[in-house]
Specification:
The chain is α/β, with parallel strands linked by helices and 355 residues long. The protein has two domains: 205 residues, Isopropylmalate Dehydrogenase (3-Layer(aba) Sandwich); 136 residues, Isopropylmalate Dehydrogenase, CATH 3.40.718.10. Helices cover 39% and strands 19% of the residues. It has eleven helices and 14 strands. A ten-stranded mixed β-sheet has the order 2-1-3-12-11-4-5-10-8-9, sandwiched between helices. A two-stranded antiparallel sheet has the order 6-7. Strand 8, helix 6 and strand 9 form a beta-alpha-beta unit. Helix 1 crosses helix 9, helix 1 runs parallel beside helix 11 and helix 9 runs antiparallel to helix 10. The longest helix has 19 residues. It is globular. The two termini are 18 Å apart.
Length: 355
Protein backbone atom coordinates (compact mmCIF):
# COMPACT_ATOMS: atom_id res chain seq x y z
CA UNK A 1 0.00 0.00 0.00
CA UNK A 2 1.06 3.57 -0.70
CA UNK A 3 -0.20 6.31 1.64
CA UNK A 4 0.41 10.00 2.22
CA UNK A 5 0.63 11.07 5.84
CA UNK A 6 0.63 14.71 6.94
CA UNK A 7 2.71 15.25 10.07
CA UNK A 8 2.06 18.20 12.40
CA UNK A 9 4.66 18.10 15.21
CA UNK A 10 3.41 21.33 16.77
CA UNK A 11 5.01 22.67 19.95
CA UNK A 12 6.95 21.46 22.98
CA UNK A 13 7.53 17.71 22.97
CA UNK A 14 5.37 17.33 19.86
CA UNK A 15 8.36 17.08 17.53
CA UNK A 16 10.06 14.49 19.77
CA UNK A 17 7.10 12.13 19.98
CA UNK A 18 5.99 12.50 16.34
CA UNK A 19 9.52 11.58 15.23
CA UNK A 20 9.22 8.29 17.09
CA UNK A 21 5.75 7.69 15.68
CA UNK A 22 7.17 8.06 12.17
CA UNK A 23 10.10 5.79 13.04
CA UNK A 24 7.72 3.01 14.05
CA UNK A 25 5.48 3.54 11.01
CA UNK A 26 8.58 3.17 8.82
CA UNK A 27 9.42 -0.10 10.57
CA UNK A 28 5.90 -1.31 9.75
CA UNK A 29 6.23 -0.18 6.13
CA UNK A 30 9.52 -2.04 5.72
CA UNK A 31 8.27 -5.26 7.28
CA UNK A 32 4.93 -5.41 5.49
CA UNK A 33 5.90 -3.94 2.12
CA UNK A 34 4.13 -0.57 2.29
CA UNK A 35 5.28 2.86 1.18
CA UNK A 36 4.42 5.87 3.34
CA UNK A 37 5.33 9.43 2.38
CA UNK A 38 5.22 12.35 4.79
CA UNK A 39 4.53 16.07 4.47
CA UNK A 40 5.20 18.24 7.51
CA UNK A 41 3.10 21.28 8.38
CA UNK A 42 2.92 23.96 11.06
CA UNK A 43 0.19 24.15 13.68
CA UNK A 44 -0.22 25.85 17.04
CA UNK A 45 2.29 28.22 18.58
CA UNK A 46 5.06 27.64 16.04
CA UNK A 47 2.55 28.42 13.28
CA UNK A 48 1.55 31.66 15.01
CA UNK A 49 5.19 32.71 15.21
CA UNK A 50 5.81 31.92 11.54
CA UNK A 51 2.54 32.99 9.92
CA UNK A 52 0.37 34.81 12.45
CA UNK A 53 -2.26 32.08 12.43
CA UNK A 54 -2.55 28.80 14.36
CA UNK A 55 -3.59 26.82 11.26
CA UNK A 56 -1.97 28.09 8.04
CA UNK A 57 -3.70 27.36 4.73
CA UNK A 58 -0.70 25.30 3.57
CA UNK A 59 -1.10 23.02 6.57
CA UNK A 60 -4.82 22.66 6.02
CA UNK A 61 -4.31 21.78 2.36
CA UNK A 62 -1.70 19.17 3.27
CA UNK A 63 -4.19 17.60 5.70
CA UNK A 64 -6.98 17.63 3.11
CA UNK A 65 -4.84 15.84 0.53
CA UNK A 66 -3.33 13.29 2.93
CA UNK A 67 -4.70 9.84 3.71
CA UNK A 68 -4.19 10.55 7.42
CA UNK A 69 -2.65 13.09 9.78
CA UNK A 70 -0.24 12.43 12.68
CA UNK A 71 -0.32 15.31 15.17
CA UNK A 72 1.95 16.10 18.12
CA UNK A 73 0.79 18.78 20.56
CA UNK A 74 0.27 22.53 20.67
CA UNK A 75 0.69 25.37 23.12
CA UNK A 76 3.09 26.65 25.74
CA UNK A 77 3.72 29.58 28.08
CA UNK A 78 4.88 31.95 25.35
CA UNK A 79 1.44 31.81 23.70
CA UNK A 80 -0.62 31.64 26.93
CA UNK A 81 -1.81 35.26 27.04
CA UNK A 82 -5.58 34.98 27.68
CA UNK A 83 -6.13 38.31 25.90
CA UNK A 84 -4.38 37.19 22.71
CA UNK A 85 -6.53 37.24 19.59
CA UNK A 86 -4.81 34.11 18.23
CA UNK A 87 -4.01 31.12 20.45
CA UNK A 88 -2.46 27.73 19.60
CA UNK A 89 -5.56 25.71 20.52
CA UNK A 90 -7.53 27.50 17.84
CA UNK A 91 -5.54 25.49 15.32
CA UNK A 92 -6.93 22.24 16.72
CA UNK A 93 -10.52 23.49 16.81
CA UNK A 94 -10.31 24.85 13.27
CA UNK A 95 -8.77 21.63 11.97
CA UNK A 96 -11.50 19.46 13.52
CA UNK A 97 -14.29 21.66 12.24
CA UNK A 98 -12.89 22.19 8.74
CA UNK A 99 -12.24 18.50 8.14
CA UNK A 100 -15.56 17.46 9.71
CA UNK A 101 -13.92 15.20 12.30
CA UNK A 102 -16.65 14.96 14.91
CA UNK A 103 -15.85 11.72 16.76
CA UNK A 104 -12.83 11.43 19.04
CA UNK A 105 -11.90 7.84 19.98
CA UNK A 106 -9.73 7.54 23.08
CA UNK A 107 -8.95 3.93 24.05
CA UNK A 108 -7.79 3.14 27.58
CA UNK A 109 -6.32 -0.35 27.86
CA UNK A 110 -4.03 -1.31 30.70
CA UNK A 111 -0.92 -3.36 30.07
CA UNK A 112 -0.38 -5.59 33.10
CA UNK A 113 3.28 -4.59 33.13
CA UNK A 114 2.16 -1.08 34.12
CA UNK A 115 0.06 -2.05 37.13
CA UNK A 116 2.65 -0.55 39.46
CA UNK A 117 2.75 2.74 37.51
CA UNK A 118 -0.87 3.59 38.30
CA UNK A 119 -1.80 5.36 41.55
CA UNK A 120 -4.79 3.01 41.89
CA UNK A 121 -4.61 -0.34 43.63
CA UNK A 122 -3.91 -3.21 41.19
CA UNK A 123 -7.10 -5.07 42.09
CA UNK A 124 -9.15 -2.12 40.80
CA UNK A 125 -7.38 -2.16 37.45
CA UNK A 126 -7.79 -5.78 36.39
CA UNK A 127 -9.69 -6.00 33.11
CA UNK A 128 -9.61 -2.29 32.26
CA UNK A 129 -10.27 -1.98 28.52
CA UNK A 130 -12.54 0.90 27.55
CA UNK A 131 -12.96 3.47 24.80
CA UNK A 132 -14.26 6.99 25.26
CA UNK A 133 -16.09 8.36 22.21
CA UNK A 134 -16.01 12.13 22.64
CA UNK A 135 -18.08 14.46 20.47
CA UNK A 136 -15.48 16.79 18.99
CA UNK A 137 -16.99 19.64 16.97
CA UNK A 138 -19.91 20.86 19.09
CA UNK A 139 -20.67 21.89 22.63
CA UNK A 140 -19.15 24.62 24.73
CA UNK A 141 -15.86 24.75 22.82
CA UNK A 142 -17.66 25.85 19.66
CA UNK A 143 -20.72 27.76 20.91
CA UNK A 144 -21.15 31.55 20.99
CA UNK A 145 -18.78 33.23 23.44
CA UNK A 146 -17.80 36.60 24.78
CA UNK A 147 -14.44 37.57 26.24
CA UNK A 148 -14.57 39.53 29.50
CA UNK A 149 -12.22 42.27 28.34
CA UNK A 150 -14.57 43.15 25.48
CA UNK A 151 -17.60 43.97 27.59
CA UNK A 152 -16.72 45.34 31.00
CA UNK A 153 -15.80 42.11 32.74
CA UNK A 154 -18.63 39.77 31.70
CA UNK A 155 -17.71 36.57 29.87
CA UNK A 156 -19.70 33.60 28.66
CA UNK A 157 -19.31 30.35 26.72
CA UNK A 158 -22.41 28.70 25.33
CA UNK A 159 -22.98 24.96 25.10
CA UNK A 160 -25.03 24.20 21.99
CA UNK A 161 -25.96 20.81 20.50
CA UNK A 162 -28.28 19.75 17.71
CA UNK A 163 -30.03 16.40 17.36
CA UNK A 164 -27.88 15.54 14.36
CA UNK A 165 -24.61 16.21 16.19
CA UNK A 166 -25.66 13.88 18.99
CA UNK A 167 -27.10 11.25 16.64
CA UNK A 168 -24.00 10.80 14.50
CA UNK A 169 -21.55 10.43 17.39
CA UNK A 170 -23.95 8.04 19.17
CA UNK A 171 -23.94 5.79 16.10
CA UNK A 172 -20.13 5.73 16.22
CA UNK A 173 -20.28 4.58 19.84
CA UNK A 174 -22.88 1.87 19.26
CA UNK A 175 -21.14 0.56 16.15
CA UNK A 176 -17.92 0.34 18.12
CA UNK A 177 -19.61 -1.41 21.04
CA UNK A 178 -20.91 -4.10 18.67
CA UNK A 179 -17.27 -5.01 17.96
CA UNK A 180 -16.43 -5.10 21.66
CA UNK A 181 -18.47 -6.11 24.73
CA UNK A 182 -21.78 -4.58 23.59
CA UNK A 183 -22.24 -1.97 26.27
CA UNK A 184 -22.51 1.82 25.90
CA UNK A 185 -22.44 4.24 28.82
CA UNK A 186 -23.78 7.65 27.84
CA UNK A 187 -22.45 10.37 30.14
CA UNK A 188 -24.31 13.67 30.55
CA UNK A 189 -25.61 16.16 33.13
CA UNK A 190 -29.30 15.75 32.33
CA UNK A 191 -30.42 16.78 35.82
CA UNK A 192 -29.12 20.32 35.16
CA UNK A 193 -28.36 21.01 31.48
CA UNK A 194 -30.85 21.31 28.64
CA UNK A 195 -28.21 20.14 26.17
CA UNK A 196 -27.74 17.01 28.27
CA UNK A 197 -31.46 16.29 28.25
CA UNK A 198 -31.39 16.48 24.46
CA UNK A 199 -28.28 14.30 24.50
CA UNK A 200 -29.94 11.61 26.62
CA UNK A 201 -33.10 11.65 24.51
CA UNK A 202 -31.27 11.27 21.19
CA UNK A 203 -28.84 8.61 22.45
CA UNK A 204 -31.82 6.59 23.72
CA UNK A 205 -33.46 6.86 20.30
CA UNK A 206 -30.29 5.65 18.60
CA UNK A 207 -30.06 2.76 21.07
CA UNK A 208 -33.36 1.40 19.74
CA UNK A 209 -31.55 0.49 16.51
CA UNK A 210 -29.03 -1.60 18.49
CA UNK A 211 -31.10 -4.08 20.52
CA UNK A 212 -27.98 -6.22 21.00
CA UNK A 213 -26.15 -3.39 22.82
CA UNK A 214 -26.90 -2.42 26.43
CA UNK A 215 -27.28 1.31 27.10
CA UNK A 216 -26.81 2.87 30.52
CA UNK A 217 -27.07 6.60 31.26
CA UNK A 218 -24.79 8.11 33.87
CA UNK A 219 -24.34 11.64 35.18
CA UNK A 220 -20.86 13.01 34.62
CA UNK A 221 -20.03 13.43 38.31
CA UNK A 222 -21.01 9.82 38.98
CA UNK A 223 -19.00 8.70 35.96
CA UNK A 224 -15.92 10.52 37.27
CA UNK A 225 -16.17 8.59 40.55
CA UNK A 226 -16.94 5.27 38.87
CA UNK A 227 -13.89 5.58 36.60
CA UNK A 228 -11.70 5.39 39.70
CA UNK A 229 -13.80 2.98 41.74
CA UNK A 230 -14.68 0.33 39.12
CA UNK A 231 -13.09 1.24 35.77
CA UNK A 232 -13.40 -2.29 34.38
CA UNK A 233 -17.20 -1.88 34.37
CA UNK A 234 -16.97 0.42 31.34
CA UNK A 235 -16.84 -0.73 27.73
CA UNK A 236 -17.69 2.24 25.46
CA UNK A 237 -18.36 5.67 26.96
CA UNK A 238 -19.99 8.30 24.75
CA UNK A 239 -20.16 11.89 25.90
CA UNK A 240 -20.08 15.52 24.84
CA UNK A 241 -17.00 17.55 24.08
CA UNK A 242 -15.97 19.06 27.41
CA UNK A 243 -16.97 16.07 29.55
CA UNK A 244 -14.97 13.79 27.25
CA UNK A 245 -11.95 16.06 27.46
CA UNK A 246 -11.96 15.94 31.25
CA UNK A 247 -12.86 12.26 31.74
CA UNK A 248 -10.14 11.00 29.40
CA UNK A 249 -7.47 12.97 31.25
CA UNK A 250 -8.75 11.33 34.42
CA UNK A 251 -8.72 7.93 32.74
CA UNK A 252 -5.05 8.38 31.81
CA UNK A 253 -4.20 7.82 35.46
CA UNK A 254 -5.55 4.28 35.18
CA UNK A 255 -2.57 3.43 32.97
CA UNK A 256 -0.14 5.60 34.91
CA UNK A 257 0.47 8.51 32.53
CA UNK A 258 -1.06 10.65 29.81
CA UNK A 259 1.99 9.64 27.79
CA UNK A 260 0.39 6.23 27.23
CA UNK A 261 -2.92 7.17 25.60
CA UNK A 262 -3.49 7.66 21.86
CA UNK A 263 -6.54 9.11 20.15
CA UNK A 264 -8.23 9.43 16.77
CA UNK A 265 -10.38 12.18 15.28
CA UNK A 266 -12.77 10.61 12.77
CA UNK A 267 -15.55 11.79 10.47
CA UNK A 268 -17.55 10.30 7.63
CA UNK A 269 -14.57 9.42 5.39
CA UNK A 270 -11.60 7.11 5.84
CA UNK A 271 -9.11 9.85 6.72
CA UNK A 272 -8.57 11.23 10.20
CA UNK A 273 -6.22 12.94 12.61
CA UNK A 274 -4.32 10.87 15.15
CA UNK A 275 -2.63 12.33 18.23
CA UNK A 276 -1.54 11.53 21.77
CA UNK A 277 -3.95 12.97 24.32
CA UNK A 278 -1.18 14.71 26.25
CA UNK A 279 -0.21 18.34 25.84
CA UNK A 280 3.02 19.96 24.67
CA UNK A 281 4.74 19.65 28.10
CA UNK A 282 7.10 22.59 27.50
CA UNK A 283 8.75 22.01 30.89
CA UNK A 284 10.37 18.79 29.63
CA UNK A 285 10.76 19.60 25.93
CA UNK A 286 14.26 18.89 24.64
CA UNK A 287 15.35 17.07 27.79
CA UNK A 288 15.10 13.57 26.34
CA UNK A 289 12.52 12.36 28.87
CA UNK A 290 9.23 12.55 26.93
CA UNK A 291 7.16 9.39 26.54
CA UNK A 292 6.52 8.69 22.81
CA UNK A 293 4.27 5.66 23.35
CA UNK A 294 1.00 7.58 22.98
CA UNK A 295 2.21 8.96 19.64
CA UNK A 296 3.37 5.49 18.56
CA UNK A 297 -0.02 3.99 19.48
CA UNK A 298 -1.71 6.87 17.63
CA UNK A 299 0.19 5.59 14.61
CA UNK A 300 -1.38 2.19 15.22
CA UNK A 301 -4.83 3.81 15.25
CA UNK A 302 -3.92 5.60 12.01
CA UNK A 303 -3.15 2.27 10.36
CA UNK A 304 -6.37 0.71 11.65
CA UNK A 305 -8.91 3.47 11.07
CA UNK A 306 -7.56 5.39 8.06
CA UNK A 307 -5.61 2.78 6.09
CA UNK A 308 -7.49 -0.39 7.05
CA UNK A 309 -4.27 -2.16 8.10
CA UNK A 310 -5.42 -4.12 11.14
CA UNK A 311 -2.54 -6.63 11.16
CA UNK A 312 0.00 -3.81 11.10
CA UNK A 313 -1.81 -1.90 13.86
CA UNK A 314 -1.75 -5.00 16.07
CA UNK A 315 1.98 -5.39 15.32
CA UNK A 316 2.65 -1.94 16.81
CA UNK A 317 0.48 -2.58 19.85
CA UNK A 318 2.16 -5.94 20.44
CA UNK A 319 5.61 -4.40 20.10
CA UNK A 320 4.76 -1.70 22.66
CA UNK A 321 3.49 -4.28 25.13
CA UNK A 322 6.58 -6.45 24.57
CA UNK A 323 8.94 -3.57 25.33
CA UNK A 324 7.03 -2.74 28.50
CA UNK A 325 7.01 -6.37 29.65
CA UNK A 326 10.78 -6.41 29.09
CA UNK A 327 11.01 -3.63 31.66
CA UNK A 328 11.85 -0.55 29.61
CA UNK A 329 10.30 2.69 30.84
CA UNK A 330 10.35 6.40 30.18
CA UNK A 331 10.56 8.68 33.23
CA UNK A 332 6.79 9.19 33.63
CA UNK A 333 6.07 5.46 34.08
CA UNK A 334 9.28 4.32 35.73
CA UNK A 335 9.16 2.25 38.92
CA UNK A 336 11.90 0.49 40.85
CA UNK A 337 13.49 -2.35 38.94
CA UNK A 338 12.76 -1.04 35.47
CA UNK A 339 15.20 0.30 32.87
CA UNK A 340 14.99 4.02 32.13
CA UNK A 341 15.17 5.08 28.48
CA UNK A 342 14.52 8.30 26.58
CA UNK A 343 12.08 8.86 23.70
CA UNK A 344 14.54 7.91 20.95
CA UNK A 345 15.57 4.72 22.71
CA UNK A 346 11.94 3.80 23.31
CA UNK A 347 11.14 4.38 19.64
CA UNK A 348 14.15 2.27 18.62
CA UNK A 349 13.09 -0.58 20.89
CA UNK A 350 9.53 -0.65 19.54
CA UNK A 351 10.72 -0.45 15.93
CA UNK A 352 13.18 -3.28 16.52
CA UNK A 353 10.45 -5.54 17.91
CA UNK A 354 8.40 -4.90 14.74
CA UNK A 355 11.34 -5.52 12.42
Amino acid sequence: MEARIATLPGDGIGAEVVAEGIKVLEAVAERYGHSFSYEEGLIGGCAIDATGTALPEDTLEACRSADAVLLGAVGGPRWADPLAEVRPEQGLLDLRQTLGLYANLRPVRLCEALLDASPLRPERLCGVDLVVVRELTGGIYFGPRQEAHKNGGTAYDTMVYTREEVRRVAHVAFDLARKRRRKVTSVDKANVLATSRLWRCVVSEVADAYPDVVLENMLVDAAAMHLLRSPADFDVIVTENMFGDILTDEASMLVGSMGMLPSAWLGEGHGGVFEPIHGSAPDIAGQGVANPIAAVLSGAMLLRHSLGLEREAVAIETAVETVLVEGYRTLDIRVDGTRLVGPREMGDLIAERIA
